[in-house]
Write a structure and sequence with these properties.
CATH topology of the largest domain: Rossmann fold
Strand order of the largest sheet: 9-8-7-10-11-14-13
Distance between the termini: 51 Å
Helix content: 25-40%
Bound molecules: zinc ion
Order of helices and strands: EHEEEEEHHEHEHEEHEHEHEEHHH
Number of domains: 3
Number of helices: 11
CATH superfamily of the largest domain: Vaccinia Virus protein VP39
């Protein structure tokens, strides 16, 4: 049963609303979405909470950031947030082939892509490589590194440059073609269908992709089958309690089906018997199916100004005591944007940034 309690009236879908900040081609893509997907009702309804199986939800929004219809609910029992109407497989393919590029405003020009790739390797690929290397030891001679939803392959580049075999899987054929020009081993496939032929990856990276899959349970099940039993999964996905707290409509993306927080993502990982080695409320998680796998947390973090700042911000955040509130109450407060919640949100961001940087610098 779904009970409607929208966060406020801005979260109601209105067909006549036109988001003025979209370009003409984005508006055309939006119209295509409304005509071909919304009006033809090409959605499937989710009747069970993907995290706990409960069937009672609170509907908090029926719209997402480009004014498109999108029912978003919180589970009555476990407080997890997700979309309750999702694309079926055929609609997802149609959406990603015909609408996504234009709607999101992605660059398809070669020059734009080259610069974007270089930036992404430097800003995201290398820091992530160093962050993961802080917690686990991997061997370039033996270990295969895979990424699901790899886009242009920027996250895999540092691993390749450090001698690892890499495989990236993505549905977007343009990005796969582009990444191959960088001599990356990228494959156009659904992550559920790709066959690793007994070569089991030691690390699977899911960077901003687990929130976009149609069925998170099917994906985690598949990962359990193909991952090396001593391997690791690194997940990052924007948390609703951090990224989605204040600009909540902007955070609700048409392409995302799961709005995880640390609680919901931990719950679902434990269901698939993953041992969590590292996790934070920014939704950066490292886990392993091997229950005796230890983290290298004992490895000291070098003293830097980032480490000091992180320590300081954490102290204040803990004192503000927002963490234990229910997700619904927290989001309602977030929409009011009072000074206390804005300060809390800012401090959270600063804390996670500084903490991340302190680990990256330790492994430089
Ligand atoms: Zn639930």
């Amino acid at each position: 049963m779904i009970t409607e309690r929208l966060l406020n009236e801005k979260f109601r879908f209105r067909e006549d609303y036109i988001p003025g900040w979209l370009t003409q081609s984005q508006l055309d893509a939006r119209k295509l979405f409304l005509n071909e997907i919304h009006r033809k009702n090409k959605f499937i309804s989710v009747s069970e909470c993907p995290y706990c199986g409960n069937r009672n939800f609170i509907k908090i929004s029926e719209v997402n950031k480009r004014g498109l219809p999108s029912d978003i609910v919180i589970c009555d029992s476990c407080d997890g947030c997700f979309k309750s109407i999702v694309f079926d497989k055929e609609t997802a393919r149609y959406y990603y082939e015909r609408i996504s590029h234009t709607l999101v405003g992605k660059s398809t020009f070669e020059d734009g892509l080259m610069q974007r790739m270089r930036d992404r390797i430097r800003l995201f690929g290398y820091p992530k490589y160093k962050f993961i290397s802080h917690f686990v030891e991997l061997n370039p001679e033996e270990d295969l590194i895979a990424e699901f939803g790899c886009n242009d392959g920027a996250n895999l580049m540092p691993w390749k440059e450090n001698g690892f075999s890499v495989i990236g899987v993505d549905l977007d054929s343009n990005m796969v073609e582009f990444g191959r020009k960088w001599e990356l081993n990228l494959i156009k496939s659904d992550m559920l269908d790709y066959d690793f032929n007994d070569r089991r990856p030691k690390l699977i990276i899911l960077s901003h992709s687990l929130d976009r899959v149609t069925d998170v349970n099917a994906v985690l099940n598949r990962i359990r089958q193909i991952l090396n039993p001593d391997g690791y999964v690194f997940i990052e996905t924007p948390s609703i309690r951090t990224h989605g707290l204040i600009n909540t409509i902007q955070y609700f993306d048409v392409e995302c089906n799961y709005y995880f927080d640390l609680n919901s993502i931990s719950k679902i990982l434990k269901r698939y018997a993953f041992k969590i080695i590292y996790a934070d409320e920014y939704n950066r998680i490292l886990c392993s199916p091997n229950q005796s796998q230890k983290s290298m947390k004992s490895k000291p973090i070098s003293f830097t100004i980032d480490k000091f700042r992180a320590f300081l911000f954490k102290k204040i955040i803990d004192r503000m005591n927002f963490q234990n509130r229910s997700l619904y109450d927290l989001l309602v407060d977030g929409q009011r944007r009072d000074i206390k919640i804005r300060v809390f949100n800012k401090l959270q961001r600063l804390y996670f940034q500084n903490f991340y940087n302190s680990i990256v610098k330790t492994n430089e």
